[in-house]
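B., you asked whether I could sanity-check this one before it goes into the benchmark set. Here's the sequence:
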Amino acid sequence: MSNLFWLTDAQMERLKPFFPKSHGKPRVDDRRVLSGIIFINRNGLRWCDAPKEYGPHKTLYNRWKRWSDMGVFARIMAGLAAEGTETKTIMIDATYLKAHRTASSLRVKKGGVIA
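And here's what the prediction gave me:
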């Protein structure tokens, strides 16, 4: 599969401070597992349909479940969002905006009230 998603070195460096510390047995490669979790969620796949390049699907699910319960992903999102506050940039992804087909046929009366 050529369309697999892999986190870059720079992305992993930004995410490392948010990872929990490993106690005892070393974790499986964080880049491989996290890239697999993102790929599964981005494409809406079942865990068992994960490409073999990301490793066992059970490992992907277990890491996702454990880190979700610990709030790791929430901390990652909050931390990354806080890093961008100084730019005050607002971006809108048009894939989530939808206009109803009848919206263009609405008539506006004088004073801005929809008829």
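One thing to flag: The chain has one domain: 9-105. Otherwise nothing jumped out at me.
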